[in-house]
Amino acid sequence: MNTLARTVEALLFLSSEPVSAERLADACEVSEAEVIEALARLREHYAEGFRGVVLREVAGGFTLATDPVAERAARRLLAKPRTPPLTQAQAECLAIVAYLQPVSRPELARIRGVASESAVGTLLDRGLIEESGRSRFGAVLYRTTELFEKLFGLSGLDALPDPARFDPTPEEEGELRERLLRAGDQRAQGPLR
Amino acid sequence: MNTLARTVEALLFLSSEPVSAERLADACEVSEAEVIEALARLREHYAEGFRGVVLREVAGGFTLATDPVAERAARRLLAKPRTPPLTQAQAECLAIVAYLQPVSRPELARIRGVASESAVGTLLDRGLIEESGRSRFGAVLYRTTELFEKLFGLSGLDALPDPARFDPTPEEEGELRERLLRAGDQRAQGPLR
Amino acid sequence: MTIAALDLDLEVFQGPFDLLLTLVLKEEIDLLEVDLAEVVLAYVEHLDWAGELDLEAATEFLVLIAALLELKSRLMLPADEEPGLELEPQQAADELLARMLEYHRYRGAARHLHELLAAEQGFRYRSAPLPPALRRVSIEAAERAYEPERLASAIGELLRAPAPLDLRHVRRPAVSLEQRLRHLRGLLARRSRFSFDEAVGDSDRLTEAVTLFALLELYKAGEAEWEQEVPFGPITVRATP
User: Fold this and answer.
1) Which of B10, B151, B163 sits opposite C146 (nearest CB)?
2) Fold classification of A3-68 (topology level)
3) In Å, how far are A17, A48, A128, B12, B46 from A56, measured between CA atoms?
4) How much is the ipTM here?
5) Of the candidates A147, B4, A67, B17, which has an alpha carbon nearest to the alpha carbon of residue C124?
6) Which residue of C has its CA nearest to B176?
7) How many helices (H) does chain C have, and how many strands (E)?
8) Closest residue to C117, CB basis, from A86, A89, A185
9) What is the CATH number of domain B88-189?
10) Nearest CA in chain A to B51
């Protein structure tokens, strides 16, 4: 490992947040290209599956993290549980914020069909989303945080897959439409209102 | 590197304090002799002069630390204060410290109605608050720093905006602490038992 | 088991029923998000499991769930409905379909996030404080980055005590079945017959309902019988001869 790679390794070790190549270059007083070259060397050293620590690219920067191989021992040593999983409601709100940000609470409620106060509150508390100004109508807007990208292992928001991928197939859609129309007819005619 | 050495490496990476061979053995569920063997392997990987991070034996334990080779770059990286947007929890903790300083962590928790460990940790890390002695009961007290004033563009603490503006029922200024504590208790307990 | 301890496992809440109630009243859980049908199901399941109906608990449960339903329906109804905005069934279905498709997309995205998070479970990041020598940032390099107003508004929000709660909708039954049984047995001991109206006096409807429960219990136990000659007419209660 050359001096630059060693220095970059030390910087990543010290920093509690992911550090961008630009900031690394600035700190090391070299060009970004040189830093990227040093990161490539580091990556060889930290190839997954060989070390207890791995080099990861998340939230628009580089950071070191422990390999899952050590999870059990880490839990025993630190007695700290991992991030609790998300409830369905929280995951849905988070997905909507991640894709549509900035997005307001009424918009979240409209898409989910239910108010989402408590899920949004928990996501705010856990630092996964944050406020980002107000809409034209005065509603608070939300966006995801760096912590979100870090905890979900995303190199950036563009690492999220195209949401159209989750759309129902045309057959499923057709079936949904038919069921709805049938229900609508029944309501229009039937005695039950 | 075998699995045990990888695990030990991960544990040392995560720990902010030196860890004894005994605690490592306990966390990894192996004998101390095996841990010492794994540490010897690690030591080869972390031989001084080759890496940005070195393995040290200090104070009856093992720890990873940065090599002095990175000192200058580290200063450059860390010298510039990081100023990502404050989360609501961070803003609340910072506001409480700013207006009531010196203030203890239990007091912060009581006012906010929730524990505030991670927000306080981040504020300390970013140098916005610092420790300022201990309370009568031994709790660490916090106050804001010079950096805080600089980052908020304040000429001094008396330049903080008057909180009464945001409060629907302004009262005597000196009562701020009591009123915050009272509101916090109400939030924490609620009227229904 | 009392109703208070009825164990719930809902989307927005896990724990005993009375904690749910407390949190709803403190507005820490939004009632709109609570699936009340699930609560009823949990109760029915509990009944199934217990194998017998505890009238005391059933009364309490009915009162509470009814109050919650009423409160929720009020919350859900628009404040003032504008006439003429009603959609034709076709239109309504189209709009609903569009919504469902949109929701379907984000439900899928949520599943993806679940998977991402699960895949990340083993990775841990270091959060050790900086070595003291590196901890001081340079004040000279610091530039104004935050608005002092943010602090004032944060402390202003903390100053606000939660609004007093309107508890009119949800009320713990102030009257127990046991009390009403005692009351009826007292009347029966003193007089051979009396009317139901006399037994309840001008008590509230809840007391009336619980008194009726008590009367059923007495009938079942063979202690009392009653008759009502015409629908909605007076009910005469008398001790079983």
Assistant:
1) B151
2) Arc Repressor Mutant, subunit A (1.10.10)
3) 12, 10, 19, 18, 20
4) 0.72
5) A67
6) C159
7) 9, 6
8) A86
9) 1.10.10.10
10) A6
Longest dimension (CA), chain A: 82
- At B71-92, the pLDDT tens digits run 999 988 887 777 888 888 899 9
* Cβ–Cβ < 8 Å for C202, C165: no
DSSP state of A85: P
Q: Which two tokens stand for residue B27?
A: 């966390």
Shortest CA distance to B76 belongs to which of A60, A30, A62? A30
What is the predicted pLDDT for the residue at C81? Answer: 46
User: Among partner residues A113, A164, A176, which is closest to C97 by beta-carbon distance?
Assistant: A176
Question: Does residue C32 contact residue C21 with C-beta atoms inside 8 Å?
Answer: no
Interior angle at CA A148, CA B97 and CA B83, nearest 5? 40
Give residues 166 to 225 of C whose Cβ lies within 8 Å of A.
Answer: none
CB contact under 8 A, B51 and A9: yes
Q: Which of C185, C196, C183 is nearest to C234 (CA)?
A: C196
In chain A, CATH 1.10.10.10 sits at 3-68, 88-189
Find out whether B74 and A19 touch, Cβ atoms under 8 Å.
Answer: no
**Helix, strand, coil fractions of chain B, as percent rounded to 5:** 55, 15, 30
